[in-house]
């Protein structure tokens, strides 16, 4: 880390926090506004899919695009600006076809903002303290993801709120102006070939697996847990609050888990989080709808969310230069893939095996995947 890094670090973390907050403020806003216009639920889902699919498709190309743009920081600024412009377009309450034009632009640009944030912060992480450093970064990111939708309490759920989200993102973009490109974030020139990709793919087993596992778990928690909660006798408001409880735990867990990884090894931290996820998945339906379900869900959310941070820590430890660029892009892609498959598979399991079926399936997944990821990380140097 350079002498000027501390200033650049915190400016960039603040910028990333604004970017995440603005983007996640727009996610529930779009769904509610389309529904209030009388659009069919299937069409609302199709719009959301257009955003997520373009995000998933753009993530693997981040290193190549950043190389052409002159670096990860420059791409972060450009994608943040495009993201804000797309939101300002949505703030005009356009005709439906324009939603399906602006939505994919929003998906791709917001994903590039996210992937470049991870790449830049990963390059700034000091050796030997990656866990704590990235834990702090993920604490702010998690707070922004949870706090973004809460901003709608201030603005109201109306089209003008897109303009407020755009302003938040533009503030973050301005904060990056004094930040210099850290060495090793993204190569300015990169040639992708099979010989270059093969060693990266082998070393990505633990980081990408952790990211995919986290995406799957958070997809289930956001979309399926509330449905399961209704079947367990919880009210609609309580069921919707599950996401708040898991998100709260996600914010609190990042730094402690990062410290644990620095002190005892990433492989042990991965296994510990997996055990907590398995135990929580089995216990929360037993405790629902009682009050003890809320602290348990917070612990569950913290353990599940920290798995992504541990994957990021492992990627930063293992990769440098062009390999790091490809590794971080792979990490983001794996998370998005996990999120895309987690919710529908969780819903199918809940429907096919009502009762304890989903809980048992999640526990088995967490323990088996956690053990596999821990062994993969251990075999490659902890």
Q: In the CATH hierarchy, what is the class of the largest domain? A: Mainly Alpha
Number of domains: 2
| Average pLDDT level | 87
What is the number of beta strands? 0
| Proportion in helices | over 70%
The CATH H-level homologous superfamily of the largest domain: MFS general substrate transporter like domains
**Rg, please?**
20 Å
Shape descriptor reads globular
Order of secondary-structure elements: HHHHHHHHHHHHHHHHH
> Low-confidence spans: pLDDT under 50, at least 5 residues?
1-6
Query: What share of residues are in beta strands?
Result: under 5%
Features:
382 residues, mainly alpha, Growth Hormone, Chain: A, 2 domains, 17 helices
What's the layout of helices and strands?
Elements: H1 5-36, H2 41-58, H3 62-69, H4 72-90, H5 96-124, H6 130-150, H7 152-155, H8 161-175, H9 194-203, H10 205-223, H11 225-231, H12 236-240, H13 242-264, H14 266-287, H15 293-318, H16 321-352, H17 357-379
Description:
By secondary structure, the protein is mainly alpha-helical. It folds into two domains: 5-178, Growth Hormone, Chain: A; 196-379, Growth Hormone, Chain: A (Up-down Bundle), CATH 1.20.1250.20. It is built from 17 helices and no strands. The protein has helices at residues 5-36, 41-58, 62-69, 72-90, 96-124, 130-150, 152-155, 161-175, 194-203, 205-223, 225-231, 236-240, 242-264, 266-287, 293-318, 321-352, 357-379. Helix 4 (72-90) packs antiparallel against helix 5, helix 5 crosses helix 16 (321-352) and helix 13 (242-264) packs antiparallel against helix 14.
